[in-house]
Amino acid sequence: MIDLADTATPAAAIMNEPPYDELVLEARNVDFFYGKNQALFGVDLPVRRNAITALIGPSGCGKSTLLRVLNRIYALYPGQRAVGRVVLDGEDVLHEQRRLPWLRKRVSMVMETQTGADPIEEEQVLRVGTDLARLRARVGMVFQKPTPFPMSIYDNIAFGVRIYHRKSKAEMDEIVETALRRAALWDEVKDKLHSPGLGLSGGQQQRLCVARGIAVEPEVLLLDEPASALDPISTAKLEETLVELKKDFTVVIVTHNLQQAARIADYTGFMFLGRMIEFGPTNDLFLQPKSDKTRDYVTGRFG
Amino acid sequence: MLGRDFLRNLVNRLFITACLLATVAAITALVFILWSLVVQGIGGIDLDVFTKDTPPPGSEGGLLNAMVGSLMMCAMAMAIAIIVGILAGTWLAEYGGHTRYGAVVRFLNDVLLSAPSILVGLFVYELLVRPFEGFSGYAGAVALAFLATPIVTRTTEDILNLQSHALREAGIALGTPKWLVTRKIIWRAAGAGLLTGGLLGFARISGETAPLLFTALNNQFFSADMTKPMASLPAVIFQFALSAYDDWRRLAWAGALIIAVVVLSINIIVRFIAREKKHA
Lengths: 303, 280
Hints:
The structure holds 2 protein chains of 2 kinds. Chain A contains 14 helices and 10 strands. By secondary structure, chain A is of the alpha/beta class. Chain B has 2 domains: about 40 residues; about 230 residues, MetI-like fold (Orthogonal Bundle), CATH 1.10.3720. Chain B is an all-alpha fold. The interface between A and B is medium-sized, with 29 and 21 residues.
């Protein structure tokens, strides 16, 4: 049994509601840098299992950046770095042991003697490794614009599965069907599974991306403004899909659309200028915001 | 008094007229070249051109050995250029392009892109002809590959850079290793563009004479042996066009027309592929 008092973190302390479900993913005190520009300042984000967590805030406030820290997609770009902790199922996934750890250690020791040791940096270097690709398989991501791969609908979904599992044709057929059903796309595409994914409409493409993301059975699905390029009907369908997905997955969604957050999210975080201003159950955040900034934003006074 | 609008209109018209004149000048030159090529070349084109080898002066003959030689050397050159060029372009676009070493590689590639082809010929002469004591089709193919590779490298890098970051990130976000994202997603998305690069490279080398003079030399007989000197269309045109014999000169015109038609067709195909891609 976990003792709740012991696991209470600053992030959890912001929470004013008791329903303390299991945290599947948690960001603790995360700073993020684009080169020399700091974009996140000590951000905490608890993500509860089988819930939808929404991130809202004006453009440039760091919501997407935070999302990109959670599966470390930022690591593709040299010059971007994160400091702090991201804990997935109790394991810190933000730091990995570098290749040639002994060399690193020496270099960092030399650096320390020259520049004065930074305890966090040191910890970072020595942290035990995480396989990045496997981490990303456990944390799925859907982007602002639909990104179907240049292949058939079927292969779009089978692609991610094939990387880690060898499946028979029948098993794969079933995985594809299940994923498409969960993403509420099956009825629309079941007769043209082998036609190109790029031939679908924007809304269908986005649900295809959701299906592709959940086919690998991730623990968390991250969505970065998934509905911003969609018309209202497609958006409504996508939202229904997300609410359905909550049963099996955990969803984190970045959105500019406050109504969308209010409609589907169980928890909402309001971010401003790289800080997490307020985090809590969606109703509380919208109806009884503790911070003036939050109130101004959710009532439409700025942003 | 003349208004400001009048002046502005006048400058506008002058500028448009200047643009128009420049365009007309360029197109006139091109049409003139093509026209004389067709007029002079069409008379020389008959079945013999495609079925007989280059003749001694004063007898019947064609360009078969030259065409076969050109095709073989170009094919081999393209095989090298496509493998090296696509891998190098991919490295520049996906992996090392932002490093200092990447910048140096890109710069050198651009230098190679505009290197005088006769220098490439001399270089390969020193590299493959002198050490092996003989001109050969292989040396010719390597010289042509040196010319085509930078083109393929450049187009590959440009095309891959056009692919959206989101597509790469979507692949990575599924837990795909980066090399698989490149191979299975990015290359596939860029397929038409990569093909375009290859065709442009082919169009470039199919008319090259200078690099072949020092490497494959020429051969007045039919030979498909790439270890021996090999005939090629550009080299035969060069030799025949400078000769004093009317029948040789007629064959040279015919050869020039054939190359022009091939290059033109390739360019049109490239346009077509590029347009298909845009509509897809």
